[in-house]
């Protein structure tokens, strides 16, 4: 999954009261599809979050960008409707659908009113099962994608991450932008899009989270109606990605007053025994709060950036530990020095007992606060399934966060954090920095 | 369909959360003038605690732009009882998250915590309303941070720089002309005295609005607010009266070239009326006008004609946000496909709008939009944090709780004729600011 790992662990700490008050039911449809449901009838609508594993990394060789373009076309005409008719129908129902593609998944989100849910499901079904891929729609959306590709060439953050991924993953799909290149997108045919649709949206890779005003029985029927006519199996998953990144600095010259830095190296898998230690370690190092080491050292102490953060990226075929910040061209070299010092310090010395305790308290206390709102809960439920977590995960996870010791952190930091292997891509006109190892 | 992020656009939310009549909302005012609003949602044991001040970037002394935002950052430094950074540390140690935000009309602070931590949040928020200490080192370091923030949000973005120039051209005298974070050269000169006098002038209970949303009752909130905010003395802050613009008699044009632009576009902006207490009909009609013109990528007038039927635009849109203390902005945008010039794109906008003024509104489209507003009253209940924010923006923009609750009914009562009247008022106005954002050589 191409997601910044963001949710973990329920508190059992005595001083914190908040237990996540969610009761997850596993629902199996008459046709054999499953979904996780949090039933809550207090507001008359339902939120549905669907993840199809695979995502844009399923692009066939020579058809880079096909899955991305295909996903953008799902709402541009389906069954007997053109794009305007499809949009008018969803507006008339006040149903909202989202269609997004990521490196390891396609995400379909929906909000539907109870009063017209059956019609809304039929409309979404048409988009998923029976999209038209009309040539005029393809041409129109292709032009939009070409413009996005062009804009990314002018976006320092995109330039930086593309460079790091290219150096890391080479010819694997992770090594290239999933929108494709201008050339590859120009060459995509209707048949490429039909094949991408057939390969990516299949029942053998679907994970469904649902929250709101619906009963398990109603949901079972909904699942079969919505997804039952998708093909049983889809395209083969891509293999493990190679890891070609070496330590050093890459500077990409770009005329802008502030440099953007994107940095990192190999990460850790979700099912690694040290995953929780790595998760807590990342929280302490650069988890996004003011308290983090990097935020304190780079922003609060020295005023070198507005924000710096690190994250564990759980790519299915090659996990990474990454981070980012921006600093004015005359300050970025100093900021990178501080980053290197901290990376080396934590790798060698681990963290303090106070840092560990504060991170555990925060992580365990914050977790139950996440479970608010149907849309949020539905997204958490589909995410838990694609990450292969057990359905009782919410009730057991906190113990695993609390079980992390200073020794676990030291061992994991020594293993995971590699100051020599850290690569920093800098986009801008940094003073006193040049490409090198 | 891919949505375009135009850095220059104001938020293009077709349907702002529209009210909360199905959610329990109540209000009270303490003796010291602190106005409080409570929004109940008992689905999860979580609460959002927000304190809003009726002061923002449009209230800064001339030549000292950036103070309101600078102060927002410095509010996380030491007070007489808390060390620098300790506020956020305590929130975090309680599993909560916190942050703050600044706009032209308001500055707001919020924490999201387990509901039994509400009293602690109020205690700390009340403390920093009055007891902030600032060292020269805090000032120097944090000024560097906000300059980096400006570099990241604005100087690194051609669209954001263009947007600053557009606003500065649109408002001649009104301080909405300055950027929220301030002009770089003015930020660089801000010192401790600037910030402190602003803090003392405006941070007081009679200039603040407390909003609590989540798993609480109004009685609990009132008791805690009396305990923590009640003892604070009011300052007697005067209602805001800002300079107003003279009538616009000349068209203005902004032309900005930046090598970082990849999709050039044209925008035309008009000064437009905002929601006023007890008088929201014109703003409601303008809101619906922006929905009719651009609320949906396939059926709204501008994208339907320019993106779908004629394939001359990558993206065509309109924006209007009526919740403002003073006059607001109505804008139309057009991002042409490669090969169509900005002059042609401007002519396309004029042509489609002229045709719209002639044809009027498709009744089916209007009915769909009205039903979406109705549905939004259901969907909006799913996130009380958003509702809390909506009340905060409304109340700091001079509206009352009643106005905010009336808004969905006002929207529902607007006729297509009123929308067309609003359209004629905006578009037959000959005075506007038209901007081109492009790159050298394009």
Task: Give a written overview of the molecule.
The complex is a heterodimer of chains A (437) and B (442). Chain A has 15 helices and 13 strands. Chain A is an alpha+beta fold. Chain A folds into 2 domains: 24-227, Metalloenzyme, LuxS/M16 peptidase-like (Cytochrome Bc1 Complex, Chain A, domain 1); 248-368 and 388-428, Cytochrome Bc1 Complex, Chain A, domain 1, CATH 3.30.830. In chain A, strand 4 (77-78) and strand 5 (81-82) form a beta hairpin. In chain A, helix 1 crosses helix 7, helix 10 (293-300) runs antiparallel to helix 11 (332-349) and helix 11 packs across helix 15 (406-416). The radius of gyration of chain A is 23 Å and the shape is globular. Chain B has 2 domains: 33-228, Cytochrome Bc1 Complex, Chain A, domain 1 (2-Layer Sandwich); 252-438, Cytochrome Bc1 Complex, Chain A, domain 1, CATH 3.30.830.10. Chain B contains 15 helices and 11 strands. Chain B has helices at residues 67-74, 86-93, 118-130, 136-155, 158-170, 184-188, 192-202, 218-228, 281-294, 301-309, 342-359, 363-379, 384-396, 401-413, 416-427, and strands at residues 25-29, 35-40, 46-53, 97-102, 107-114, 208-214, 252-257, 265-272, 313-320, 328-336, 433-438. Chain B is globular and about 65 Å long. At the A-B interface, helix 2, helix 4, strand 12 and helix 12 of A face helix 2, strand 5, helix 4, helix 10 and helix 12 of B.
């Amino acid at each position: 999954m191409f997601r910044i790992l963001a949710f973990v662990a329920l508190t059992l700490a005595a001083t914190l009261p908040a237990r996540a008050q969610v009761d997850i039911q596993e629902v199996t449809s008459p046709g054999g599809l499953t979904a996780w449901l949090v039933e809550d009838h207090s507001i008359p609508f339902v939120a549905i979050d669907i993840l199809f594993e695979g995502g844009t990394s399923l692009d066939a060789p020579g058809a880079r960008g096909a899955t991305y373009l295909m996903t953008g076309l799902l709402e541009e005409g389906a069954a007997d409707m053109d794009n305007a008719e499809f949009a008018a129908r969803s507006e008339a129902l006040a149903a909202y659908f989202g269609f997004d593609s990521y490196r390891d998944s396609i995400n379909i989100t929906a909000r539907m009113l109870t009063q017209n849910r059956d019609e809304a499901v039929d409309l979404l079904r048409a988009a998923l099962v029976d999209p038209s891929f009309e040539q005029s729609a393809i041409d129109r959306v292709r032009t939009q994608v070409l413009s996005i590709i062009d804009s990314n060439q002018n976006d320092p953050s995109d330039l930086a991450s593309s460079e790091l991924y290219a150096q890391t993953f080479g010819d694997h799909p992770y090594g290239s932008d999933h929108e494709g290149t201008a050339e590859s997108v120009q060459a995509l045919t209707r048949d490429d899009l039909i094949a991408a649709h057939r390969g990516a949206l299949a029942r053998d890779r679907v994970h469904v989270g649902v929250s709101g005003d619906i009963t398990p029985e109603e949901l079972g029927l909904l699942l079969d109606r919505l997804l039952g006519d998708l093909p049983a199996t889809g395209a083969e998953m891509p293999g493990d990605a190679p890891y070609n990144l070496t330590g050093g600095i890459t500077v990409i010259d770009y005329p802008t007053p502030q440099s953007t830095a994107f940095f990192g190296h190999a990460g850790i898998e979700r099912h690694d025994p040290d995953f929780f230690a790595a998760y807590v370690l990342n929280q302490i190092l650069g988890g996004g709060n003011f308290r983090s080491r990097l935020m304190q050292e780079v922003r609060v102490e020295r005023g070198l950036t507005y924000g710096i953060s690190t994250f564990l990226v759980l790519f299915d075929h090659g996990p990474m530990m990454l981070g980012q910040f921006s600093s004015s061209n005359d300050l970025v070299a100093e900021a990178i020095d501080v980053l290197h010092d901290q990376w080396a310090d934590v790798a060698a010395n681990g963290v303090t007992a106070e840092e560990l305790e504060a991170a555990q308290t925060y992580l365990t206390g914050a977790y139950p606060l996440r479970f608010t709102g149907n849309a949020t809960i539905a997204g958490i439920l589909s995410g838990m399934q694609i990450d292969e977590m057990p359905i009782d995960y919410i009730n057991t996870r906190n113990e695993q966060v609390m079980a992390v010791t200073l020794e676990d952190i030291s061992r994991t930091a020594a293993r995971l954090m590699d100051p020599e292997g850290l690569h920093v891509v800098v986009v801008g006109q940094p003073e006193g920095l040049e490409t090198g190892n | 369909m891919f949505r375009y992020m135009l850095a220059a656009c104001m938020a293009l939310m077709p349907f702002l959360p529209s009210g909360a009549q199905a959610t329990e909302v109540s209000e009270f005012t303490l003796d010291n003038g602190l106005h409080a609003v409570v929004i109940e949602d008992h689905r999860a044991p979580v609460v959002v605690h927000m304190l809003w001040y009726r002061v923002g970037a449009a209230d800064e002394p001339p030549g000292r732009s950036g103070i309101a935002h600078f102060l927002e950052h410095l509010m996380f430094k030491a007070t007489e009882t808390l060390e620098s950074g300790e506020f956020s540390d305590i929130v975090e140690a309680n599993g909560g998250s916190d942050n703050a935000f600044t706009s032209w009309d308001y500055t707001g602070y919020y924490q999201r915590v387990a509901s039994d931590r509400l009293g602690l949040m109020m205690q700390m928020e009340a403390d920093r309303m009055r007891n902030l200490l600032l060292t020269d080192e805090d000032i120097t370091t944090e000024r560097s941070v906000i300059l980096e923030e400006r570099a990241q949000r604005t100087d690194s973005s051609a669209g954001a720089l263009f947007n600053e120039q557009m606003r500065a051209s649109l408002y001649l005298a009104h301080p909405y002309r300055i950027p929220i974070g301030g002009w770089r050269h003015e930020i660089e000169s801000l010192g401790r005295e600037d910030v402190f006098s602003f803090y003392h002038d405006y941070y007081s209970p009679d200039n603040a609005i407390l909003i609590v949303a989540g798993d609480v009752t109004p009685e609990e909130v009132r008791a805690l607010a009396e305990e923590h905010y009640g003892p604070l003395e009011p300052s007697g802050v005067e209602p805001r009266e800002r300079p107003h613009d003279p009538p616009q008699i000349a068209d203005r044009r902004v032309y900005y070239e930046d090598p970082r632009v990849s999709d050039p576009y044209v925008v035309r902006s008009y000064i437009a009326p905002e929601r006023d207490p007890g008088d929201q009909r014109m703003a409601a009609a303008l809101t619906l006008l922006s929905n009719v013109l651009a609320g949906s990528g396939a059926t709204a007038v501008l994208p339907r004609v320019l993106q779908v039927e004629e394939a001359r635009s990558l993206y065509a849109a309109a924006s209007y946000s009526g919740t403002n203390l003073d006059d607001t902005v109505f804008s139309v945008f057009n991002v042409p496909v490669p090969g169509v010039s900005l002059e042609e794109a401007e002519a396309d906008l004029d042509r489609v709008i002229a045709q719209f003024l002639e044809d009027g509104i498709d009744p089916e489209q209007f009915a769909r939009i009205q039903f979406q507003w109705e549905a939004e009253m259901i969907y909006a209940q799913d996130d009380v944090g958003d509702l809390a924010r909506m009340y905060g923006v409304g109340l700091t923009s001079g509206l009352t709780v009643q106005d905010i609750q009336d808004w969905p009914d006002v929207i529902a009562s607007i006729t297509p004729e009123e929308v067309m009247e609003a359209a004629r008022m905006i578009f037959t106005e000959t005075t506007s600011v038209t901007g081109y954002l492009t790159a050298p050589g394009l």
